[in-house]
Each structure stands twice: as C-alpha cells, then as structure tokens.
C-alpha cells in the first residue's frame, strides 16, 4: 500500500538530477549525509540507484531519502524497482531497456507518478516512451562516464533533433559536468543527471550547486 506521507509540491522536471553512486550506497549514514548535501546544493530530483544492498536496507534507505526530498522540495525517484517506489511513496521510478516495462510501471504507480525511461541514443525509443506515457526520457552517455564507461555514446546533436519532436522533458546523462552541461542544455536538455560528478566530489554540496546554477540563468 502506498505511504500516506504528504507528497512534494508540483515540481517541474528541470534542473540537476542527482543519482546515488555505489560508493555512498555501501553505508546508510554516508548515503543520507551525501544526499542531504546534494539537496542542499540545489538538486531538483534525487534518484536512489542501489543495486548492491539487500531489500531491507534499500527499503529503509528509500524511506529516509524520501523524507529528505520532502524537506528540500525535491522529487524522489527510485531506480528500476517499481514495488519499492510504490511501498515507500516515491514520486516515481526510472526504468531502463531491460527493467520493468513502462506500461507495467504506469499501471502499478498510477497516472500521477513520474516515470522516466532510458533511451540511450535512440530517438525512436524516446518517441515510443512518450507515446506510452513516460514523464521524461533520458539520453546518453554524452561524454566519458565513470559510472557506465561501456555505455554506447550519444552525440549532443541528438538533443537538437529530439527536442522539437518531444513534448515531455529530456534528461542528459553520461559524463556530464558543469563545464560541458551548458552545451547540452542549449540543445534542449531540461535536466542533467550526475552520479560521480556530484557524489564523487570532495564537496558534494558545492558540486551540486555548480550544476544547479546552470538552470538559474
């Protein structure tokens, strides 16, 4: 059953999309402290991506992260686990090509849930996701990525091609830094996602702020 915690206010899908890294997920206290810093720095969305902890730990962490997002007015998204998103009352879920089908996620989470779909470098997949009820699509990797070094590359020009054909927000992911993000934003990215760019930084709050400020111009 969905949690009865109050939902966050309506929030545009725009800005820094911070995604938790393996290093911080290995310790719950570290995870929460890092997430707090990222949210304080201005992350508009926080995705809990944890493919390493057991189910009980992930459930406890998700509830705690949801609480932090509520305090900061950010959206809380669970990676690849529709049932965990449903159980903790998350704002939504992000699914990849090999994860839960979009239609299943939408049916389980309802019409108001934020559901994102990874589209790699495929505009065709993005258009299909839009037609299927996705809330946003994610393209990438655009640059060398420490998180997914073997992911197929996507050219920045893809954003310019996709933007006129998509009515839903677009997220750019893969090696995105505050230095190279402006090019992607100018080409149509509504959000830029960062894993190590935020959570691998020595000062997480400052790193998040550097990304977030790109959307305040």
Describe the 3D structure.
The chain is α/β, with parallel strands linked by helices. It has one domain (15-215): Aldolase class I (TIM Barrel, Alpha-Beta Barrel), CATH 3.20.20.70. Helix content is 39%, strand content 16%. The protein is built from ten helices and eight strands. Strand 6, helix 7 (157-162) and strand 7 form a beta-alpha-beta unit. Helix 2 (28-40) packs parallel to helix 3, helix 2 runs parallel beside helix 10 (204-212) and helix 3 packs across helix 4. The chain is globular, with a radius of gyration of 16 Å. The termini are far apart.
Summarize this structure briefly.
The protein is α/β, with parallel strands linked by helices. The chain has 10 helices and 8 strands. The chain has an 8-stranded parallel barrel, surrounded by 6 helices.
Q: Give the fraction of residues assigned to helices.
A: 25-40%
Summarize the biggest pleated sheet.
8 strands, parallel, barrel
The CATH topology comes to: TIM Barrel
Count of distinct strands: 8
Element-by-element helix/strand order: EHHEHEHEHEHEHEHEHH
- Estimated share of beta-strand residues: 15-25%
Keywords:
single chain; 217 residues; alpha/beta; TIM Barrel; eight-stranded parallel β-barrel; 10 helices; globular; disordered N terminus
């Amino acid at each position: 059953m969905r949690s009865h915690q109050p939902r966050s206010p309506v929030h545009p899908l725009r800005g820094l999309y911070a995604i938790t890294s393996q290093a911080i997920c290995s310790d719950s206290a570290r995870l929460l402290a890092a997430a707090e810093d990222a949210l304080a720095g201005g992350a508009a969305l926080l995705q809990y991506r944890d493919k390493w902890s057991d189910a009980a730990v992930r459930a406890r962490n998700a509830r705690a992260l949801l609480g932090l997002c509520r305090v900061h007015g950010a959206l809380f998204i669970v990676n690849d686990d529709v049932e965990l998103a449903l159980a903790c009352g998350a704002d939504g879920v992000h699914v990849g090509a090999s994860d839960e089908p979009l239609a299943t996620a939408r049916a389980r989470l309802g019409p108001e849930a934020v559901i994102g779909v990874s589209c790699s470098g495929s505009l065709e997949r993005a258009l299909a996701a839009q037609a299927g009820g996705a809330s946003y699509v994610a393209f990438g990797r655009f640059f060398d990525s420490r998180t997914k070094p073997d992911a197929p590359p996507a050219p920045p020009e893809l954003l310019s091609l996709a933007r006129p054909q998509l009515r839903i927000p677009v997220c750019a992911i893969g090696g995105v830094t505050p230095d190279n993000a402006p090019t992607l934003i100018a080409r149509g990215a509504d959000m830029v996602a960062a894993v190590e760019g935020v959570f691998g930084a020595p000062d997480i709050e400052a790193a998040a702020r550097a990304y977030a400020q790109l959307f305040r111009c």
